[in-house]
Amino acid sequence: MQTKTQLEDLQNYLSDASNMPGGHAEKLFVPENQDEVADILREANEKRIPVTVSGARTGTVGGAVPFGGWVISLEKLNKIGSIDKANLHAVVEPGVVLADLQKAVEAEGLFYPPDPTEWSCQIGGTVATNASGARSFKYGATREFVTGLKLVLPNGEKLSLQRGSSIATDGGPIELNTDSGNTITAKIPTYERPKVSKNVSGFYNAQPLDAIDCFIGSEGTLGVITEIELSLLPKPEGFFSGIVFFPKNEDLLAFVEAAKQLSFGTRTSVSAGENADRDVRVPLDATLIEYFDERALDFISEKFPETPTGMAGAIFFEQETTAATEDKLFEAWNDLLERHNADIDASWFTTTDQDREKMRAFRHALPVSVNERVVRNKQKKIGTDMAVPDENFPGFLRFYKETLDASGIDYVIFGHIGDCHLHANLLPKTDEEAERSRHLYGRFVAQAIMLGGTVSAEHGIGKLKSKYLYVMMGERYLNEMAELKKAFDPNGILGRGNMFGPELLK
User: Fold this and answer.
1) HSE-up of 196 (CA within 13 Å, CB side)?
2) Among 95, 119, 347, 457, who pairs with 421 as Cys (CB 3.0-4.6 Å)?
């Protein structure tokens, strides 16, 4: 195990993609196995030393930024233990990079759907934040694929969890036995979760509650993950993908709503949407539905000059196919696009892996381009991560656009429209615009909460959004979250400052 104390050795571990300033730590540990993690935490707990867990540091909310204490980097716990093709199952350590796992799984003819924008993230980080991404429209977030965890608790005790082994019902507490035989009882927070498909604001608390779900999305505050068991899927036979351009925004939104209804109808084996009167079962089942507003298209045309001009926006969709369904699906999507006045001649379609990756590169190049512009402006990006219920989404998008247009601040809007979850990225050019952008962010938070939404759909709370979690949850429910944390971390050493401040842990 490596141990480092020199500033030059610690420097890379004092910040993450949030660019939150002020990070500092006394010592960095780079363990290579679970026993070494346990030794570090045991000593830290005895000495009441704060510990911050560090992965690839791709998070955008400051969760990996330490403010004193020790840092544990999981970069050396980076082995893919096994990929079981027969049982659709993989065992990995937390430091495995997502892109590496997906390649290894694909080589076995299998598929791991979670695809957050930053492919260089580590699997442990995706579990700690319940990462999602574009394909969550069909497959859900990381939580859906985690079947087992091995962790080390803040006192150094080890904990092994299998999905289904410990379930709390009727509002009762969860009870867990550590590997050494000690019992931990924890009361589940009672807040009502927003009626949105993506939400990572606070500890998960559905009822009934599987104990493993307490740790997924807990942002490194309850335990340190040292091994992960994941379920896999057979690799889809093929894909039909399109980036489709719309001259009118109302046609684009109507297309999205129809595609969503048809996809959900397929999953529930119900004829749905505008085709119901034909008494046919429509085979559409989109894997993802992504949105680019007109400003995003202008923005990305710098890197993709073939992007057509004069469009109100675009949609990127994917549909899994087989040889038996391919022709029927092409026809169904084409029919849907024609009926919603898409500019089919200007749009891009493919069934090949190579061109599909180009389309995905188009989508992923946008946040990169945004970050480059922010650096050029010598300001910080201010990007939203709210989601609202389906019925309130059109009004929320309209509020975004009208408010931002009136502000005069440059912006682009893109993201996961299938999940009613878009990222409005404000691009201030001056300090004065940056200050106004922060105020606008606060207005968007308030509007999302008023509409029954969440302040964080996929990026988490970390340290930067704790005040917004307070606005969303209120003091009572934050105290309930703190009580859950104290059950696993009585001394409050782990992930200090993530989600809520240490004052609630006294």
Assistant:
1) 31
2) 457
